[in-house]
Each structure stands twice: as structure tokens, then as C-alpha cells.
Amino acid sequence: GKPRGIQAARKLRTHRKDQRWASKPFLKAHLPSKYQKPFGGASHAKGIVLEKIGIEAKQPNSAIRKCVRVQLVKNGKKIAAFVPNDGCLNFVDENDEVLIAGFGRKGHAVGDIPGVRFKVAKVSGVGLYALYREKKEKP
After folding, report:
1. 106 Cβ contact partners less than 8 Å away, ≥ 6 residues apart
2. CA-CA to 93 of 20 to 30 Å: which in 8, 47, 113, 123?
3. Rounded CA gap, 67 and 63, in Å?
4. Looking at the whole model, is its pTM more than 0.85?
């Protein structure tokens, strides 16, 4: 079993420190590679829309998923982000400032959209869902 003596604290602590690296979520969170990811370890990031693109869905689905190419402000990296909801691509124009969030699978592509790991949350400071529901106007 584990050491249980009165002087076992260091042994327990170092062992736990080593064993944590065996867990996948801990590994993903603590490897230095998080700074190489587009967001640099953050949950959201702002960017400028470069162009609107349609990405074809994977088989067996057949659709053109509306996405945008975005250049992030903080590090200049270019990423593709999905624009959710029906007709919301009309609210997004080129050179708009958008807020990008993850797509909910911790850096995995979602569903039938190949290679897209982010989604658009806000357009020029207004939530995309608020525009979609006609609660707010775009400034």
C-alpha cells in the first residue's frame, strides 16, 4: 500500500505529483504546448474576419457549413470559425471584430464540420444569438 508513516508526507506528495501526469486532462492543461494553441490557453479570443467560407460537411451529410476565416488579434494566427444558427452569416461582414469561443470538445472538431474547432460568439461587441433573435441591432 502507500506509505503511512509520520514522515511520509514528502513521499506521498512527490508520488502524487508524478502520477498526475498520467491523466489526460491534466496533461493537456499543463504541457507547455498550450501556448502554441491559437488561443494561447485562454477561453475566448478576439479576431478580425478575413473572409467568409463555406465548408462542405463530411459524409454521409451533404451541406455547406457557413464559416469565417479569422485572424486573431493577440498573435496573428489564422483560424476557421463556425457561424451558428440559420442565416447568421449575414450579420458577419469582412473586417468585423468577432469574439471566438471554443466549439465544446476541448480542441476537437465537432460533428460533420472537418477541421473547425471554434465558433463565433459575438460580432462587433453584440452577441450573435441576440442579433439572430432580433433583440439587438448591430452597431
Report:
1. 28
2. 113
3. 12
4. no
Residues of the chain with pLDDT under 70: none
Please tell me the distance from the alpha carbon of residue 122 to that of residue 115, in angstroms, as a whole number: 21
Q: Please, is 120 exposed, middle or buried when counting C-beta atoms within 10 Å of its C-beta (0-12, 13-18, 19+)?
A: buried
User: Residue 16 has which C-alpha cell?
Assistant: 502524487
- Which three cell numbers mark 61? 451529410
Q: Are 98 and 120 in contact (CB under 8 A)?
A: yes
Positions of E strands within the chain: 44-56, 64-72, 78-82, 97-102, 118-123, 126-127
